[in-house]
Amino acid sequence: MYVAVTTKRNGAVTEVGQIKMNVGCIAHYQLTQVCQAEYFRQLLKPVT
Length: 48
Description:
With 48 residues, the protein is mainly α. It is 90% helix and 0% strand. It has one domain (1-48).
């Protein structure tokens, strides 16, 4: 019984970790896209 509970808990922790990782990846990807857009905007601005 105890082993089953421990296994379940570990599974839940792993799942939460996976979700956190996915959210982190998406956030990082979106941040990268924004940074790239800003970078190109600066790059394409005519130099005065």
